[in-house]
Every structure is written in C-alpha cells, then in structure tokens.
C-alpha cells in the first residue's frame, strides 16, 4: 500500500508531462508558419513578462519596439507604481512604470536580451511567468 501511495502521484505527473509533450508536438506540427507558436494553445506556451521602467517615455519606446520586433503581441503600460528594493546596500524607493508583456514563452530569451541591450537600468527587471489558463481566443491571438 505504501508503494501505491507514493507511486501513484509520480505516475500521474509523468502521464501529465507525456500528454503535454504529445499535445505540444501535434500543436507545433499544425503551426501556421510561425515555428515559435502554434495554432492550438498549449498551457505554458504563452508567458506574461514584467519589466519596470524609470518613466513613461522609456516604457512607451520599449513597448513599441517589442511589438514592432514581434517579441510581444501586446504590452500594457501601468503608470505610477512604487518600487521598494535594496540596491548596492541601500534601501531605495522609486516611482516607476510597469510593463506587462504578453508573448510566446519561446520568445522570452530574445525578449530578455532585447531589454538588457536597450533598457537604461544597469540591471533591468525581466520576469516571466507561464500562462496556464485564460481566454482561448485571446491566447491563440497572442500566439
């Protein structure tokens, strides 16, 4: 009985991973010419990425460039956030602008590289989280 209790969750997890891999493979093969995204939404294939900016001008420039370069489908600009953090041993508090970026998970490395190369901060924030659920038509549009 102990073997069953500990083995069943592992087998269930393995089954889910195999199903996800099979779905991803079949979805990718039905792609509409875009190798980094598919026509059928696969959980985790879309990410929401977050980048803070020093002001709205920088935020808009970065957002437009990301969409023009097809690194993002959509970028929301959230003005007037307050960030409290430690930098170089000192507690800081700054007014910033937050970018919420919707993109294909496969594009996150290129997105991060773009931000590193163009962002005015010495160490720019690029944090991405996979989207596992949402409005299917919207998620397909992001792809």
Question: Can you describe what's shown?
Answer:
The chain has 143 residues and is α+β, with helices and mostly antiparallel strands. The chain is built from 4 helices and 4 strands, in the order αβαββαβα. The chain has a domain at 46-135: Alpha-Beta Plaits (2-Layer Sandwich). The chain has a 4-stranded antiparallel beta sheet with strand order 2-3-1-4, covered by helices on one side. A hairpin with a 2-residue loop joins strand 2 (74-87) and strand 3. The longest helix has 28 residues, at 2-29. The model is unreliable at 1-8 and 14-35 (pLDDT under 50).
Radius of gyration: 19 Å
Which structural class matches the secondary elements?
Answer: alpha+beta
The tally of strands reads: 4
Distinct helical segment count: 4
Task: Briefly note the CATH topology name of the domain at 46-135.
Answer: Alpha-Beta Plaits
Main beta sheet = 4 strands, antiparallel
Helix-strand pattern: HEHEEHEH
Task: Give the SSE map.
Layout lengths: L1 H28 L16 E8 L2 H13 L5 E14 L2 E15 L3 H11 L8 E5 L4 H7 L1
Antiparallel strand pairs: 1-3, 1-4, 2-3
Subunit structure: Homotrimer.
Keywords: Signal
Protein name: CUTA protein
Features:
143 residues; alpha+beta; Alpha-Beta Plaits; four-stranded antiparallel β-sheet; 4 helices; disordered N terminus; CUTA protein; signal; N-reg_PII/ATP_PRibTrfase_C
Question: What's a concise summary of this model?
Answer:
The chain is an alpha+beta fold. It has helices at residues 2-29, 56-68, 108-118, 136-142; strands at residues 46-53, 74-87, 90-104, 127-131.
């Amino acid at each position: 009985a102990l073997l069953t209790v500990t083995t069943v969750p592992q087998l269930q997890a393995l089954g889910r991973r195999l199903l996800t891999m099979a779905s991803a493979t079949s979805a990718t093969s039905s792609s509409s010419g875009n190798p980094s995204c598919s026509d059928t939404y696969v959980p985790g294939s879309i990410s929401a990425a977050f980048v803070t900016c020093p002001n709205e001008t920088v935020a808009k420039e970065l957002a437009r460039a990301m969409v023009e370069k097809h690194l993002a489908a959509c970028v929301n600009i959230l003005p007037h956030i307050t960030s409290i953090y430690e930098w170089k041993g000192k507690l800081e508090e700054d007014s910033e602008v937050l970018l919420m970026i919707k993109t294909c998970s496969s594009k996150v490395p290129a997105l991060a590289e773009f931000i590193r190369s163009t962002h005015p901060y010495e160490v720019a924030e690029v944090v991405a989280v996979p989207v596992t659920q949402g409005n299917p038509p919207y998620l397909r549009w992001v792809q």
